[in-house]
Design goal:
The chain has 425 residues and is mostly beta strands. It is 13% helix and 39% strand. It is built from four helices and 28 strands. The longest helix is centred in the first third of the chain and has 26 residues.
Amino acid sequence: MSSVRTTRNRRLAVALAATLTASLALLAPAAAAPPPAASAASGAPLREVMFVGNNWDGTADVIAARGDFHRIGRVNVIPDKQERLREIHLDPVKLAFFLGVRSGPGEGHDQFVDDMYATPDGASMVVSRPSFADVVSLDLRTGRINWRFPVAGYRSDHMAVSPDGTRVAVSASTANTVHVLDISTGRQLGSFRTGDKPHENVFTSDGRLWNMSIGEVTTALDAPWLDWTKGDRKITVVDAATFETVRVIDMRSRLDAFGRDDLSDAVRPLVFTPDEKKLYFQVSFLNGFLEYDVDADRVTRLKALPGSPATDPDRTTWVNDSRHHGLSISPDGGKLCVAGTMDDYATVVDRATLKQGPLVPADKPYWATVSGDGRSCVVSESGADRVSAIDFATGERIASVPVGDHPQRVRLARVPADWTAPSAG
């Protein structure tokens, strides 16, 4: 454990030295940026696409949502990078957290794009940017920023969009807060408190918003008996109109009742069945997933998936306490698709029998989404800088497309049918 701390401290020292060396240049005055362009309402037909967030290079690729999933264009999501860096370097506290994100969850890299959604008219892309602790709206025609919302604290994380597409929820992970914003204007409509380190957000059709807090995932205290050190982890369910808490689910007691007190209660990605009666969720350190009956309020099944013999058994080497991170469900609710992050595969699992399909080799898959036609699961391979589509029916890979550096979140979106990427200038 001491060697892990030494390595992390060395990385932080190197990052601090490099950052401070660059500070003088960053503090120099810069040319004034052009004023933000208003996002023009689009009366043109829209085209279904997928947004792929390339976390480490600060871009989002736009790819076809079905077929060969070819890349259509790329958007720079950090056009204001120099301005944000100058702002951070002028504030010692912001600088400390910025470096902490780099050395911790960023694995030595800045985190420039976590999550993305399109506005209902397809004119803009709304992006959470962890290292800049904000959410921005980008005009998809010009690449310019429409609005910017700094979150509470020092890091933004997962988002969710409301069923009608008009609101976006974003986790402020160091402030234990979720903000809900008007997706067109960036105006805050409300917020609510969560457990430690809010992560995934999900809107449900009954007018509720679910948040899963995962606690501390960058410490080296990863032995099962030290799980209590990870913080207050819980599911917070609020009324999506009033933001009042209507339910709190402590998965610790549910896992204990299921007979698995050895499992972490840090709920990672999850999906609901189409009728929202059951949900399937991953937890830290588990190669597999669990089933939870929403009405009965209990864990009902566990699916353990194979571990790779090549996976380092030292849990402190697993990325942000993940073993498997990424889960999607077919539109009919019959199949689940799992990203086996640290075991380097993805697989389709029959929901009724929990029988798994082929283990499709994938390089650190980090997310799983359903394709536009509902026939495929699309996983981001963060270690290979590509996304791959896996057929729900056969469990086999049917397409792959290269994207930018360290793809993570993949989201369905709509853009104008004639859209082309903004020019690099």
